[in-house]
Specification:
alpha/beta; Rossmann fold; UDP-galactose 4-epimerase, domain 1; 2 domains; seven-stranded parallel β-sheet; three-stranded mixed β-sheet; 39% helix
Length: 312
C-alpha cells in the first residue's frame, strides 16, 4: 500500500513520518513545496520515503502525482499556518489551505483513495471564555489563517457528503516539539534565549492555550486512522492549558533565565483569548489520551533545540 503525506518536510508532518517508520513498512510518498518553514532533511532517509516537491495549488501536478503513485491513504498536513503572516497577506493561505485542499480532494476522488485524513486546528472554533470546544462547537474563525482552515474543513466534509469520499477530520490544539519553525511561540522563546535575546509577549500575556506535544499528536492520528469512523471528526488536545506568560516563565526556569528577558509588545489584531479542547470523544471511542505532560514535553523540546540550534 502507498501512503501519501502532504507537508512531510514541515513540523508536524516530519514528526509523523518519523513515527510511521516504527509502525509500517508501506511506501510513503511525501508532497511538500519546501517553503521557508520546511526542510527536506527532516524527512527520514531510506527507500521507504519518496519526496515529490509540489505546490498543492498546482492542480495538474497534484493530479499527476496521484495518478502515478495511486495512494490508498492520504494524511493532509500541508498548510500555511502562521497567524501573523495571514494578517499581513491572506492570499497564500487561500491558495494553500483552501484551493490546495480542493485539489487534493479532487485527485483523491479520481484515484479512489480509501481514506483521506484531514489534519486541522481548534482555531476554527474561535475563542471560548469558559468550557471547551467539542466536535459539535460552531465554527467561528477570527483571523485569516483560521478562516482558511475552517473553509478547508467544510470542503472536506462536502466531498464526503456529496461524493462519498471516505474522510476523517481531526482538530488539534497548539502543537510543540522538535523541528518547529522558529516563528512559532515555543521555538521563538527557546531560540531567543539561546541567543540572549528578549522574548516578545503579546499584550498582557494572559491568552490561554492548550498545548499538545507533537509525538502525542502523531500517535493520536494513527489511532484515528486505525479505529476512527469515516465521516467523523475528532478533537486532539494535550490537556495542558496555560497562559502565554506562564508558559514563557516555565521555559525561562528550564533554561535558567530570569524574567528580565520578557518584553511586552503590542497585541496582534484578532488575537483569540482562550482555546480549550474537549477530547472526551477520542478518549471514549478510540482509547487515546496524551502521554506527555507539559513539563516533560518542554524539557524534551528545549533539549532538542539546544542540540540543534542551527536547524533552520
Amino acid at each position: 500500500m502507498t501512503i501519501l503525506v502532504t507537508g512531510g518536510a514541515g513540523f508536524i508532518g516530519s514528526n509523523f513520518l518519523h513515527h510511521l517508520t516504527s509502525i509500517t513498512e508501506d511506501r510513503v510518498v511525501v508532497i511538500d513545496k519546501l517553503s521557508y518553514a520546511s526542510n527536506k532533511k527532516y524527512i527520514p532517509a531510506g527507500p521507504q520515503f519518496h519526496l515529490e516537491e509540489c505546490d498543492l495549488f498546482d492542480e495538474d501536478q497534484v493530479r499527476y502525482i496521484f495518478s502515478r503513485f495511486k495512494p490508498k491513504t492520504v494524511f493532509h498536513f500541508a498548510a500555511e499556518s502562521h497567524v501573523d503572516n495571514s494578517i499581513k497577506d491572506c492570499k497564500p493561505f487561500v491558495e494553500s489551505n483552501i484551493v490546495g485542499t480542493i485539489n487534493l480532494l479532487n485527485a483523491s476522488l479520481a484515484t479512489e483513495v480509501e481514506r483521506f485524513q484531514h489534519i486541522s486546528t481548534d482555531e476554527v472554533f474561535g475563542s471560548i471564555p469558559e468550557g471547551s470546544f467539542t466536535e459539535d462547537t460552531k465554527y467561528d474563525p477570527r483571523n485569516p489563517y483560521s478562516a482558511s482552515k475552517a473553509a478547508s474543513d467544510h470542503f472536506v466534509n462536502a466531498f464526503h457528503n456529496t461524493y462519498g469520499l471516505p474522510v476523517m477530520i481531526t482538530n488539534c490544539s497548539n502543537n510543540y516539539g522538535p523541528r518547529q519553525y522558529r516563528e512559532k511561540l515555543i521555538p521563538k522563546i527557546i531560540t531567543n534565549l539561546l541567543q540572549d535575546k528578549k522574548i516578545p509577549v503579546y499584550g498582557d500575556g494572559q491568552q490561554i492555550r492548550d498545548w499538545l506535544y507533537v509525538q502525542d499528536h502523531c500517535e493520536a492520528l494513527i489511532d484515528v486512522w486505525r479505529y476512527g469512523k469515516v465521516g467523523e471528526k475528532y478533537n486532539i488536545g494535550g490537556e495542558c492549558e496555560i497562559t502565554n506568560l506562564d508558559l514563557v516563565k516555565r521555559i525561562l526556569s528550564i533554561m535558567n533565565k530570569d524574567e528580565s528577558m520578557i518584553e511586552y509588545v503590542k497585541d496582534r489584531p484578532g488575537h483569540d483569548r482562550r482555546y480549550s479542547t474537549d477530547i472526551s470523544k477520542i478518549k471514549t471511542e478510540i482509547g487515546w489520551s496524551p502521554r506527555y505532560n507539559l513539563d516533560i514535553g518542554l524539557e524534551k523540546t528545549v533539549s532538542w533545540y539546544t542540540k540543534n540550534n542551527d536547524y533552520n
